[in-house]
Design a protein that fits this description.
Two copies of one chain form a homodimer. With about 550 residues, chain A is an alpha/beta fold. Chain A has two domains: about 250 residues, Carbon-nitrogen hydrolase (Nitrilase/N-carbamoyl-D-aminoacid amidohydrolase); about 260 residues, 3-Layer(aba) Sandwich (Rossmann fold), CATH 3.40.50.620. Helix content of chain A is about 40%, strand content about 20%. The first copy, chain A, is built from 16 helices and 21 strands. Chain A has a seven-stranded mixed beta sheet with strand order 5-4-3-2-1-14-15, with helices on one face. The first copy, chain A, has a six-stranded mixed beta sheet with strand order 6-7-8-9-12-13, covered by helices on one side. Chain A has a six-stranded parallel beta sheet with strand order 18-17-16-19-20-21, with helices on both faces. In chain A, strand 1, helix 1 and strand 2 form a beta-alpha-beta unit. The radius of gyration of chain A is 26 Å and the shape is elongated.
Chain lengths: ~550, ~550
């Protein structure tokens, strides 16, 4: 009886590092061959450049580098294994998003991606021309129909591959994560497999790249749409799929299936992965962050420690007159719990020095948010000085609800290289904090229980100037993710006053978000490449 | 003898303000009718939304608003005038970039743009489906072939309009400016007109929208490619083109042609327009900027005064120990020359207060750029405090050469809402300063003549750490605008040491640029939507 071992190589490329990614590919194939007896190894979409390569695709030497890398792979990859790997390729003047097939030292076939996403975070039509032809390659009697990512979200390329005689569909992906994406993806694969009555092997990358994070979850569904094998999410992994021929059809044997995790664990893993890869791939020694005694910085600290270990994390409490005693106590307590470097730098001398210098200019004016922002900016300057001196990246700690309505100070609490919770709504910040504490206590319970406050004025609470976070987040999800109009949100049961206030704040604060650090995107509409709004904007709320 | 008066309406829409833009259109048609006896009025591409509307196109109420606006136009626009105007329109489920034709209260025809640019700053395939059909409308016996912007850069849609029987090609545009674009555009129109032996009427918008600035220069070339009429650049304008019928062909009468301006005047006008529109359309009372005694802030101040008038400009000199006496003198002198508000706020008390607070953390470390950045950040905090208190936008003053190599301090001299010279290389900063002084003295000559210095350390000069600006800019233009590899630049005659240093700096500083304020784009590759590079990037220089 014929069989075929296909290994799904769920890897983490470094964008732009073409020689390094080729080395990773060569090493991966050897390992898949030695450990799993691979007949076929499938790597992710655009693996040789990493995804997304963005305007590196326009560089003059891109093609030379890829030619060299592919030549080296052809010379070094072990024999008798068929390798399918993604890279960009120019053919007859047009650039394509391709999958190449390497066998016994020869690149024997190429497929060009047909469906090029150009929405949300994707800009593929900026670079690529669409392919039009299917590709089926045969190995050990099995005919593999090659597809790339978006192709499998469309019916046409999938049916085309079936009609070209494929026994097994193999799709290379660089499919970024957002909440619930893993289950959406699986439902889609089940539907497509049933539609064409063929098994589908789906190979996705993992790791973080700027605002994107990839969750992996590479898998195989059988011709009835049943999940047969699945690699873990959030880790580099080689997972074999054993196909056997039964009555002329190639059927995947049931193998290991990574168990589902809770929504909280899944999201938390995304944040840890995004931060870890940003810091490590950028070569930072570690991170420094301001610890305020509030929930956002507390969760960010826990994520940082889980991503980098406590030795690489430096926390600073920067109290002022409005900092509550319990904030100081809780910050110190958490730093101790997690074993991170910790120092206390009061900001009063600097704030007062600025106010004295500005006294003449401000004469006759009322106290307003200027003074609040000044506190926040003195903290920002301190963090940046520590960052510069110690080579640590500043971790920004504002959540999505704040970034949406501009409840953050430019050059103040918004300073930093990366924000692990940038795309996490405040209500989810609480959920994640509580969930993480069930694993082990990392956040003092009082931080979770007390009412949130920016502590920039006496007795200030977030609810003084914003709707409660349950309401705020519910409005924001509808406005940002749902593109609903203010009127439609009001019709869904929210107060007109709240909705108009929130919607206007979101529109007005585009200028702030444009200067915010990048952070890991975990919703369907992150603030970044995902949501492209004008700053100068005459749009008024209304139907 | 038949004749036809076509009025080119070179307008400045407000992005997102659909009702307001419709009002502008109604008013414009009335004026064109009364003052010029218009038979046809042509307005720019996507005029009703403004260009580019970006993700506002995804909003649920976009279509309702456009329907209302077009209904109001149909009811209010004067009779007997044919109006051609751009707007997005959904037809059979697809969104198109359209030109609609309004006549005597009826929308009688629509054209859908065929060539959708998706490169550089353009993302039109993110939103629009391409049209496939030509549109020719007849008025007073003249058959007008309608095209939209990119269509006229391609041969196919132009020939299609001719084949459909057009006598005159009419193209609606939102064509952003870059240096030399006006002459490139004119050459293209000459070529296209000759190719199909038809006159072309080209209507472009003017004004600034975030990083884009539109120069206008609406014009008509005759069937031989000869410029017959041209509206001024950089101003709202209604300019008529008189067509007469001669031997069965429609020929434009020679009319007013706006004279060419120098490259310096053209670029300077772009910067003034970009800044003026950003500030006014955002509703700021004015701007505040740090005046250092150096050339960048001096030029920025001159631009700000030309854009907004001296009453709306507030300049602050923020000296420290390393600020030369001549810097103080020249800053004061320029503020006096231009009649702007001016104050001096020394930063020593704040800098020293930070250093004392950080003394324990910094114990045993060497002095490095941390201390330099600290000075710059104290200035940033002061400017932001003035901005917050007085409702003035901070004008950022870093040039493109600095932004390219990261010779700027995040949250220091990079603070601000807008940067008028963000896309101007240092060598051009000098050219513009000298040119502006020939009009009237606005920058003390010594500011132009002295060697550039950031004045963040004793006796510091820019040339200590960078190649001279002629060399630096020559390398940058090749690397950024030309996408040349380091090796190709070296082969063009530059030192390998300089080239590798510059190229590495450019690649490494993407994280800084990502948090920079927007500023007016005036080259073919501005740092913004134009050049999309990964921050985490393993690309190494080399062929």
């Amino acid at each position: 009886m014929q069989d075929l071992t296909l290994v799904m190589a769920q890897l983490d490329p470094l964008v732009g590092d073409i020689p390094g990614n080729a080395d990773r590919a060569i090493e991966t194939v050897r390992e898949a061959h030695l450990e799993h007896g691979a007949d076929v190894v499938v790597l992710p979409e655009l693996f040789l450049t990493g995804y997304p390569p963005e305007d590196l695709l326009l560089r003059a030497s891109m093609e030379t580098r890829l030619r060299d890398a592919r030549a080296r792979m052809a010379a070094k990859v072990v024999k008798d294994v068929m390798v399918v790997v993604g890279y960009p390729g120019r053919r007859e003047g047009q650039l394509y998003n391709m999958a190449g097939v390497l066998y016994n030292g020869e690149w024997i076939a190429e497929y060009a991606k047909q469906a090029l996403p150009n929405y949300l975070v994707f800009d593929e039509q900026r670079y690529f021309s669409p392919g039009t032809q299917p590709l089926v390659v045969e190995h050990k009697g099995a005919r593999l129909g090659i597809l790339i990512c978006e192709d499998v979200w469309k019916e046409e390329p999938v049916r085309q591959a079936r009609d070209a005689g494929a026994d097994i569909l193999v799709t290379l992906n660089a499919s970024p994560y957002h909440q619930n994406k893993p289950s959406e993806r699986l439902r889609l694969l089940e539907e497509r497999a049933r539609d064409v009555a063929l098994p589908i092997v789906y190979v996705n990358q993992i790791g973080g790249q700027d605002e994107l994070v990839f969750d992996g979850g590479s898998c195989c569904v059988d011709a009835h749409g049943k999940l047969a094998v699945q690699a873990p999410h959030w880790d580099i992994w080689l997972r074999p799929v054993q196909f056997i021929q039964e009555q002329g059809k190639w059927v995947p044997r049931e193998g290991e299936v990574d168990l589902d995790v809770s929504p909280e664990e899944d999201l938390y893993s995304a944040l840890v992965t995004g931060l870890r890869d940003y810091v490590n791939k950028s070569g930072f020694q570690g991170v420094v962050l301001g610890l305020s005694g509030g929930i956002d910085s507390a969760l960010s600290l826990a994520i940082a420690v889980d991503a980098l270990g406590p030795q690489r994390v430096h926390a600073v409490m920067m109290p002022y007159h409005y900092t509550a005693d319990i904030s100081r106590e809780d910050a110190a307590e958490q730093a101790k719990l997690l074993g991170v470097n910790y120092e206390v730098l009061p900001i009063a001398p600097m704030v007062e020095s600025f106010m004295e210098t500005l006294a003449a200019s401000f004469a006759g004016t009322e106290r307003d948010t200027t003074e609040e922002n000044l506190q926040s900016r003195c903290r920002g300057v301190l963090l940046m000085a520590l960052s510069n001196k110690k080579g640590l990246m500043v971790l920004t700690t504002g959540n999505k609800s704040e970034m949406a309505v501009g409840y953050a100070t430019l050059y103040g609490d918004m300073v930093g290289g990366y924000n692990a919770i940038k795309d996490v709504y405040k209500t989810w910040v609480y959920r994640l904090a509580s969930w993480r504490n069930t694993e082990s206590l990392v956040i003092p319970q009082r931080v979770i229980d007390r009412p949130p406050s920016a502590e920039l004025a006496p007795d200030q609470q977030d609810s003084d100037s914003l709707p409660d976070y349950d309401t705020l987040d519910a409005i924001l999800v509808r406005y940002i993710e749902g593109d609903m109009s203010a009127e439609a949100i009001i019709a869904a049961g929210f107060s007109a006053e709240d909705v108009y206030r929130v919607v206007k704040l979101v529109d007005r604060c585009e200028y702030k978000r444009r200067q915010a650090p990048v952070g890991v995107r975990v919703t369907q509409r992150g603030f970044g490449r995902d949501r492209r709004y004008p700053i100068v904007n005459g749009w008024q709320p209304g139907d």
